[in-house]
Specification:
This protein is of the alpha/beta class. It has helices spanning 15-27, 45-57, 72-78, 92-100, 116-128, 135-141; strands at residues 5-10, 31-34, 63-68, 86-88, 106-110. It contains six helices and five strands. The two termini are 25 Å apart.
Length: 144
């Protein structure tokens, strides 16, 4: 089953990639909630991370997307919250296994380190891949 509702947020470094990925999501007729930022003026990434994680935690969306320069800051920030499993991905295989084995509910990109087309394919894979469950469920339960 394809995820139908997604939250997206970024800092100034991730703005251009965010705009590109919003179009990818819209081209697939999915609903996307854009939590900013809305330009390339310097901002603090934890503010935008919090908006996306809150939407995921409140089940307002099924999954989230976070983008900053390297993806590291957003990953650290998002994974502070119980029940958030944010995965920094740079390949389709990482995105696939983040969902299959880790039930990741947020994908993170580093806009300075990943090409747009690779991010596009990672996002599509992330949205289309279901959690495998089984032995992985036991491990996920130990995370929160």
């Amino acid at each position: 089953m394809l995820t139908s509702q997604i939250a997206i947020g970024c800092d100034h470094a991730g703005f251009a990639l965010k705009q590109f990925l919003i179009n990818v999501v819209r081209d697939r007729s999915l609903k996307i909630f854009d939590f900013g930022t809305f330009n390339e003026e310097s901002v603090d990434y934890p503010d935008f991370c919090r908006a996306v994680t809150d939407a995921v935690l409140k089940s307002e969306v099924e999954r989230g997307v976070l983008i900053c320069g390297t993806g590291i800051g957003m990953s650290i920030s998002a994974n502070r919250f119980p029940h958030i499993r944010a995965a920094l991905c740079y390949s389709e295989k990482m995105a696939k296994f983040a969902r299959l084995h880790n039930d990741a509910n947020i994908i993170v990109f580093g806009s300075r380190l990943v090409e747009k087309e690779i991010a596009k394919h990672c996002l599509i894979t992330f949205l289309e891949t279901e959690f495998e469950g089984g032995r992985h469920q036991r491990r996920i339960a130990k995370l929160s």
